[in-house]
Amino acid sequence: MIPNDVWDIAYENSMSKTRVNYPTQKPEQLLERIIKSSSKNGDIVFDCFMGSGTTQAVAMKLGRKFIGADINLGAIQTTTKRLLNVSKELENADDKYIGFEVYNVNNYDFFRNPVEAKDLLIDALEIQKFDGSNVYDGELDGRMVKIMPVNRLATKSDLEELKSNLPYQKFEKRKSENPLEPVERLTIICMGHEPDLKPSLEKDLINYNIDIEIIDILKDKANLQFKRDSEAVIEIEDNKLNIKEFYPMNLLQKLSMQKEYVEDWKQMVESVMIDWNYDGAVMEPKLVDIAEKNDLVKGVYEIPSDVSNIKIKITDLLSETYEKEIKINE
Ligand SMILES: C[S@@+](CC[C@H](N)C(=O)[O-])C[C@H]1O[C@@H](n2cnc3c(N)ncnc32)[C@H](O)[C@@H]1O
Question: For ligand 1, atom 26, which residue shows the shortest CA distance?
Fold first, then answer.
């Protein structure tokens, strides 16, 4: 029968088993129809506005590989949790892609708080900070530094505030004293920028010789390390794998907590996944331990008999992961 152009699919009602309470959640049936009609087993499905992850959940159930993205951290957390549950349901299915990774692009989440972001950059780039200045944020190698909002790319309109605050009287004085020298050496720090940012600023300040440099941390400082890696103590005892300690450093930092004050690491963990025979490339978890409403993850796991190379992945409440490989027989 030729399908009708009206698809009669019920929305996610409050009793639905697959409901995860994301405000714009779509019914799985809808995505099932779209995915089945437009892809084959093993194809890659991409939804760059994934919300609660309906596309990814259905793709996983249908044996498709998948990629998702969302600007909202809540969507990442909801989807991570949802996919962990689906991967648990499909634990023993051989033809499904149940492993997945969560990536954080451009330290986006880390730069969520603009005040904190500025301080992190000042530390990382070793800028001498100016307190209380409404023009510049600090000085670096004899240059005045202005840090743009770093949770998005810098646009020409972001420069308006800087332009209106520049010390033009000083510039005039320097210009008359030293006409051949730049009146200012200015470094603008940003996280991605419009390609004509510098020429447009030069044009607007055409009356002054200003030496402008743009440092784009996405390109020029791609190796800057902002994140502190998580740490864990994992031991094998009496044929059991025992996670003794776990310190999700970014989460601890967000909670303003010191390592020493972590009483029970399990309270900060969403899931533990273990692949007992990791092939060094693709993690295929055979054990999926998810924290439920009233239950924390177990933390101690019986090791099966035929293990070779163990890979453990601990996902914390920020959906950030810690990974460790333990080779048996070494
Ligand atoms: C209508 S919802 C998607 C719902 C999803 N299909 C489901 O079943 O749950 C749209 C999503 O796009 C996300 N979004 C909006 N702008 C975005 C952007 N620029 N980049 C990535 N995600 C974005 C929103 O956070 C929201 O979660």
Answer: 51
